[in-house]
Amino acid sequence: MPKAPGTPRKKATIAGPRPQRRAAAEPSKLDRLQALILASLEDDKAEAIVTLDLVGKASFADRMMIATGLVDRQISAMATHLETKLREAGFARPQIEGATGTDWVLIDAGDIVVHLFKPDARALYALEKMWGADLDEPAA
């Protein structure tokens, strides 16, 4: 069988980066982060808070938290308060997308990604169905 043209380096470049698995965060740190986020959301009267385990399903985070706020202003305040509490607790400053008055705010707190939705947007995107345990079960 003839050899494919090109050097191993060129072949690796063409193939692209190898997928890398994230090492799961230290459990105590992850649990402290989740507890802090949960307490912040509960203080701000978030509704229907759900936590999804993403270990083995996604490489970008270990957990996902989803919560509902009733109006844009509440959702924006929840994101701002969470950012402040994370900084005060010594966690890295989270990245926030959509905090300027939209139906959906995403907060990337490193090992946990937080989604804040208005009720209609949450029903539309249905992240619980997309990432929930139901997907792990074989179809009947």
End-to-end separation: 45 Å
Order of helices and strands: HHEEHEEEHH
- Number of DSSP-assigned strands: 5
Number of continuous helical runs: 5
Largest sheet descriptor: 5 strands, mixed
Morphology: globular
Low-confidence runs (pLDDT<50, min 5 residues)? 136-140
Rounded Rg: 19 Å
Q: Roughly what is the average pLDDT, rounded to an integer?
A: 80
Total count of domains: 1
- Mind telling me the CATH superfamily name? Beta Polymerase, domain 2
**Could you please say which CATH topology applies here?**
Beta Polymerase, domain 2
Helix content: 25-40%
CATH architecture grouping: 2-Layer Sandwich
What is this entry, summarized?
The chain has helices at 8-15, 27-43, 72-88, 119-125, 127-131; strands at residues 47-53, 63-68, 95-97, 104-108, 112-117. The chain is an alpha+beta fold and 140 residues long.
What attributes characterize this protein structure?
140 residues; alpha+beta; 39% helix; disordered C terminus
Task: Provide an overview of this structure.
- The protein is α+β, with helices and mostly antiparallel strands and 140 residues long.
- It has a single domain, classed as Beta Polymerase, domain 2.
- Helices cover 39% and strands 19% of the residues.
- The protein contains five helices and five strands.
- Strands 1-2-5-4-3 form a five-stranded mixed β-sheet.
- The protein starts with 7 loop residues before the first helix and ends in a 9-residue tail after the last helix.
